[in-house]
User: Fold these one by one.
Assistant:
Number 1:
Amino acid sequence: MFTDVPPITDTKRESNAISLRSVTKSYGPVTAVDDLTLDIRDGEFFSMLGPSGSGKTTVLRMIAGFERATAGQVLLDGRDVTDTAPFDRDVNTVFQDYALFPHLNVLDNVAYGLRVRKVSKRQRYERAREALATVRLEHLTARKPSQLSGGQRQRVALARSIVVQPKVLLLDEPLGALDLKLREQMQVELKQLQRDLGITFVFVTHDQEEALTLSDRVAVFNEGRVVQLGTPSEIYEQPRSPYVAQFVGTSNLFDSAASQRLFARTGTHALRPEKVSLYPAGNGHPTDSDGHVIRAVGTITESIYLGTGHRVHVRLEDGSPLVVLEQSKGAGAEHETRGDSVIASWSQLETAHRARSTRPSSQTGSSVS
Ligand code: ADP
Ligand code: MG
């Protein structure tokens, strides 16, 4: 029998844990996922980032097999699983609400997936204890989920997913229910876990900072499509559309007319608030563009204390609004306040950069790099 021997071309697919080929999912008139083609590499930490309703969960559910694509194919490790049942796919999902069994203790919750797979009792408890040690919960095996904190429940859910040693772990906003401190701690742990296990993580979040700090690559979603795909720094430093520039961090956007007025260029330009410096006006700084440095005069309309610094809102002389993030100058240092005249200054490179990568608005949001 030679029918199971894969053709030679299949070896190319080895590096893709997941491939989506023109996948569409419609619910009646609603197109949740729109003709999506995407490759997720073996062993990478891949994030799907987008606002609520942009189709992230639906993509995850099609990868897991809980939803069937209306059109297109889903491949896992090069194998077409479009019509394969969830339990026949080598993936596991950590759900947003954790979905723990309330009547089972921690150990039995974690061992459950092994019981279903007919692993012997001794073995499944051994492996469940190992998985719990990985998430540092080995001391709470006898507790019920209701006796755990949110962070602990989150760890049980993680242990339950990794105990079956899936090739792919799907995580749907797993940290969404945790408070900020715990979320930051779990982010570090998730990253370490993924590195230690070496398995592919597909992580869904609407939190841009989370996506940027954790991921090898990020796919930014809008209305069922991926509008940009790249490394965190590519997404942040080279947003390809105003949508991405605004959604991933905050940006000042200058339309063509404003760009023309401020730095004699056409096309939409994005400028990150932390790239701008402010100086008090009227102490000798030139106000025209000088070499690579752009300077513009303005008035502060608002200055908001952030602890780590100030977010300063400026109205430039030409009427353009500008948001600037200033690092704290230390206790007692003088800060500009509302009504002050200032000179805003930034490197031409910071905006010229985006001139190349910003597309005409008619194409915005329709292409994947
Ligand atoms: P996200 O996870 O990015 O918030 P979803 O994938 O949950 O987005 O939803 C994408 C779109 O599909 C939304 O408009 C949502 O209302 C719709 N949708 C999701 N699931 C269903 C369903 N079972 N029936 C009808 N519409 C759905
Ligand atoms: Mg969702």
Note: Residues 56-57 surround magnesium ion (ligand 2) (CB under 6 Å).
Number 2:
Amino acid sequence: MAKKTYKHWKVVKDDEGIAWLHLDIPKSSANTLGEQTLIELDAIISTLAEENPKGVVFLSDKESGFIAGADINEFTTFDSEDAALENIQRAHSIFNNIEKLPCPTIALIHGFCLGGGLELALACKYRIAEQDSAKLGLPEVKLGIHPGFGGSIRSIERMGSFAALDLMLTGRTLDARRAKRTGLVNYAVPERHLLKAARETVLHPPHTAKLPWWETLIRLSFIRPLVANMMRKKVAARAAKEHYPAPYAIIDLWQKYVGNREAYLREEAKSIAHLLLGYTAQNLIRVFKLSETLKSLGKDKSFNVKHIHVIGGGVMGGDIAIWCALQGFDVTIQDQRHETLAAVLKRAAKLYQRKLKDRRKVKNTLDRLMPDIHGYGLTKADVVIEAIFEDVEVKSNLFREIEPKLKRTTIIATNTSSIPLEELAPALKKPDRLVGLHFFNPVAKMPLVEIVVGNKTSKKAKQTAMALTKHIRRLPLPVTSTPGFLVNRILMPYLTEAVTLYEEGVPPALIDKVALKFGMPMGPIELADTVGLDICLKVAENLAQSMPISISKTLQELVNKKQLGKKTGKGFYEFKKGKAVKPSISNSPVSDEDIQNRLIARLLNETIACLREKVAESEDLIDAGIIFGTGFAPFTGGPLHYIEYKGQENLLAMLRQLEQKYGDRFKPDAGWESIQPSQ
Ligand code: NAI
């Protein structure tokens, strides 16, 4: 047995002549492929090419998995496309050299095997995945790029065009079983058999499977454009080309080069170098880093929450309890009504079946979610999450009633969407235990949770709330306890402007279309209908006390008529099978440009007000909150980043013009004068 240790790699040659290449990046919980790691790998592969081992096995010494991708921090360091291309071509040549090794080469995969990590695995002749933990994917498109180390053509060669393009275009991950079924890996085996499977594969290399017959058919020069156009149409329904060029580049590469491997590899490198330096990729990389920043806020070594007690089993409380149990916590859920608790359990079973698939896992998770009409869980809970009716008196009464039953250290987190904590804290003997944990609807989909910090909230309560949020795989954003916190405060002027446009006779479908064109994930009218018009009205009424928001008559009338949007089947739109039916767009009294300017100007103006008042601590946190809380066009990098890009003076001039035409609601916030242009 011979061993050679590098900074990132360790090469162990065993008695059978197999070289085991262990990757273990120092001071990092996950392996990534950065420049230094690749330079070392280059040297290792050159040596192995001369030594001619019996087989080469790549594996990771990290618990978290194989390789999580390329090193994203290096993505923003290139100062030109040429510099990026040179770097990418170097990786190409290393991966080509791996491919050329004459012996069997194997990637032994547990946990995450993503992006560049999967591309390395694809350069091997065989891939063996650990059946329970492996997650494989090419998620580059989410960062505005595509595979860049030869993974485009290599994934197609293993899985066929449709499955590989689906992986690249959606960025989804596959578990080991699906990876095996689609041909991405050769074997899915239990952990205890991994090493044996690798050794067996080296000693008795199997034949690789052939692609299906229709793969030849779709590659024919007259069929390819048809297939490509079909895919373009599908992509266009989700992402506009001018905002998200990467998926279109993936399809273009396939259409032009799928029959010519060498050209495919060459052009993939050029295309990714071009995308990487572009506006969208740089901003999406920023958004990814913002999510990492939010996650890091939730780090807390002393975090010790095991039992969560949720009060209120309605839309929010029910979903919060369901989600927390899914993430491994013991949860008791209390409501006044038995029927509500029964409905929660039914919803839970449905979600767990969808997410976990395995009957045993579903049962174990359901066992952690305990209906508790009498509130027995209160005495044991480490955290109580309150999600009852949005009313100061009702919530205060509940606090008075439950506090004597709690442990001294128990934290109370309220899910209020609009009540400042200072109005609720007086009901408690220990007001420092109160913090806001503002979830968004639907809990299982919305990534952000606002951590509302009142003037009495203790550091411990704040830190526990942030850590809990991270533990349930959500992003914590600390905000001040001011009306609307951050997200609703930003959204409300934008939504009320949309309703004003509607009242001026602009077709609602046009308002939504213009917002989508700007890059919003959903138009404001459909968003209001989805959130529920009663909730919108309540938040608007609350905010109207502190900001220039007019309460729309239309909104009040719809709420009076119980046309509350999606949940009642009718609001601004009618809903069929949960989908808004949008009437065709007739003439509009306002131009598209004006619609967009008015919607976005109000949102940006309120963002500046939040920055001035420090509702969240920094510009980055404000951008992060608005992107993850409202879905604000991610390819812009967030509203403050967008302001910087467009030029503060230009946007200020636009606001002034709108103020002259439409009045005070467009009055530029004082904060515009004091923002520092970045260097
Ligand atoms: P909901 O009306 O669906 O549920 C409230 C539940 O609380 C009901 O099941 C009711 O039986 C129960 N309840 C009321 N008083 C109780 C008491 N004293 N003891 C035990 N159970 C009691 O309301 P929803 O929409 O779930 O809202 C709950 C809270 O979450 C509110 O503060 C709301 O502002 C906030 N919120 C709502 C969002 C939404 O989109 N619906 C989003 C974010 C926050």
Note: The mean pLDDT is 95.
